[in-house]
Amino acid sequence: MLDCAIIGGGPAGLTAGLYATRGGLKEVVMYEMGMPGGQITQSSEIENYPGVFREDPPLTGMDLMEPWPAQCMHFGMRHEMKEVRQVRRKGEIFEVDLGTESVEAKTVIVCTGSTPRRAGFKGEDEFFGRGVSTCATCDGFFYKDKEVAVLGGGDTALEEALYLANICSKVYVIHRREQFRAAPPTVERAMKNEKIEFILNASIDEAFGDMTGLQGVRIVFNDGREPMTLEVPGLFVFVGNNVNNKVLLQDDGSFLCDVNEQGQVIVDLNMHTSVPGLYAAGDLRIEAAKQVVCAAADGAIAGMQALHHVQEMNS
What we know:
Elements: E1 2-7, H1 11-22, E2 28-31, H2 61-65, H3 68-72, E3 78-80, E4 86-90, E5 93-97, E6 102-110, E7 114-116, E8 132-133, H4 136-139, E9 147-151, H5 155-165, E10 170-174, H6 184-192, E11 196-199, E12 202-210, E13 213-221, E14 228-230, E15 234-237, E16 241-243, E17 278-280, H7 292-314
Parallel strand pairs: 1-2, 1-6, 2-3, 6-17, 8-15, 9-10, 9-15, 10-11
Antiparallel strand pairs: 4-5, 5-6, 7-16, 12-13, 13-14
């Protein structure tokens, strides 16, 4: 039986394993189908991880994460490239379904994250990471004093547009409706910002560019106006996230633990879910900051809590 099963090999999962094994747990396995590292490995430049900085050439997400697996597995955590199908409660322990087999675990830490939802326009995938982004905090500085566009009309879209307005010369907000899903105070602040221009009743039909990256987007209107071309080197897409909570879904359609309306796992400050011994860390949880440093902190907390839980079970 495992002391702890960790599902997901990003910053949260790796750090959880480091703290759990360094604290004394012996049977700790991290399940990750691919190479550990998480979504951050796709980032072309990293400037906001404290204590790690390189200007020329810039530090990439792959560079940042390269030493993590060896360090986090130094104290005994094992990595198994197996897909977790489902986590089930079995009395006071858990059953981790791997498809062809199942393993039992005293504790489980779920770090499967979330995936930014794609808008679906032509060229979105082609220029993702080369002008198309889903994180203004991560990539906004690369467009200092340049014009950029934001796609979306929710709180995240307008909050990120306001953030970008502090960096960029102009921010175009493209939204498919005239009304916004964002909170009224956020809408009011964005409307009053002189650097933000709204393009409403509109959507992006295509992103275009060349080998150097994004050069602009083609915009179409719902009310029949002529399409327009917007020449911008940066486009930030905020149309929601898909939470990767599938492993917590039970056969009857319910979730193993409490989740909110968006499917995010409800945790307390110690990453405890509503089920004792089950923890969630990183982008999967409610109110996640979606930053590497925050995911690592979540993982550290969850790893220590799993250690305490196992110690109590064994006492």
